Amino acid sequence: MFWHIFKNRLKIVLRERTLVFWALIFPLILVTLFNFSFSNISEMYKFKTINIAVVEDDVYKDEDFMVVLGELSSGSDKIFEIVYVGIEEANELLEDGEISAYILLQEELELVVNRSGYSQTIVKHILDNYAQVGSVVSNLFKTNPEKAQEVLLAGINMNENYVDTEEGKDSDMVVVNYYGAIALACIYGGFFGLKTINEMEANLSSFGIKNVLAPFKKTKIYIPSFLVDVFIQAICGITLITYLVIIGLDFGDKLIPVYSITILGGIIGILIGSALGLVGRFKENTKMGIFVASAFTLAFLSGMVAPNVKHIIQVNAPLIAKINPANLISDGLYSLYYYDNMNRYYINVISLVVIGLILLSIIAFAIRRRQYDSI
Questions:
Q1: What does each C-alpha distance from 275 to 194, 224, 368 come to in angstroms?
Q2: Which of 288, 313, 285 is nearest to 298 (CA)?
Q3: pLDDT digits (tens, 9 = 90+) for 268-284
Q4: CATH number for the 46-152 domain, one of 3.40.640.10, 1.10.150.120, 3.60.15.10, 3.40.190.10?
Q5: From the centroid of its chain, how far is CA 156?
Q6: Percentage of residues in the chain having pLDDT higher than 70
Q7: Are 45 and 170 in contact (CB under 8 A)?
Q8: pLDDT of 39-88, one tens digit each?
Q9: R_g (Cα) of the chain, nearest Å
């Protein structure tokens, strides 16, 4: 009986193009659009050699600083690309945007810029550090150039955006959008659960009437139907993650935990859809509309649209963050990306399991308790 229901239920679900679209095609389209939108953002904040000019003073010569500049502008990983010019040419290059800044070699080093930004901040930081520990750095460059660069660059994050504008965002936060999209895809597994419940209850569909009249318990129908939903949703989740790996999203060496939490998140989505299916006697399309809006809201709060929303919710409404399945999925994925250990990942997994058990208990109780005086 189990395999008979499983096999036929599998055929029925696969024929439902709408369900397959929301569970698989839509998430693939969404992450593809994200890839087109965010493909250049990570490149924007990678460190690139900074073009600067140096204006030498005929009277004052700082030989130690010239040694420092020479080391910082040599090698394959050089920080500066330097041209030595006069003051007038330096101003022209700065005005034309061919250099980020120029340095006046005087008794007191002077930095000249015409805008604030990432490159200008790094140059200023290096000059400030040199002014504080100039002689020490100079000696280090003569004996240990790599250590000297560490001293000068202490405190600078080469992947951080120093531009003073609201438009720039930390490129690492881009992954939160992808993780929110994965969470949404998991929650969209609820379409399968919603469909299953709709076809089991006599007050929701004619197909449900037939199932209620069948001479065996509802759980014998629900269990294989639920496992079919899990099977198909797991394939959808695995396909989505594999596609993201192919297009270049970096999950590191933790792909198994990524696949695991995606499959678990899909199960939670199915249970959410099943629970919603048991509420009221609304038409199937109405419930689907409510479910789409609810799933998107959960994903939005997990940072899919704006990563800052995830942080705002965690700071100002931590309880919502802890009970939002989409946030738990997104946070579990981000913890794999951001943290060295997996403690936070396991906390999110345990929270999802607890939510799943609660939903499963509610569904089992509601299914067994529901009786019909007449059909």
A1: 8, 17, 13
A2: 313
A3: 999 999 999 888 777 77
A4: 3.40.190.10
A5: 24
A6: 78
A7: yes
A8: 666 555 556 788 999 887 666 666 767 777 777 888 777 888 899 888 88
A9: 30
Q: What is the CA angle 188-191-196, rounded to 5?
A: 145
Hey, what are 206's tokens? 């004619």
Domain with CATH 3.40.190.10 in the chain: 46-152
Q: Give the tokens for residue 300.
A: 């939005």
For the entire predicted model, the pTM comes to 0.66
Sheet holding 50-56, edge to edge: 80-84, 50-56, 101-105, 110-112
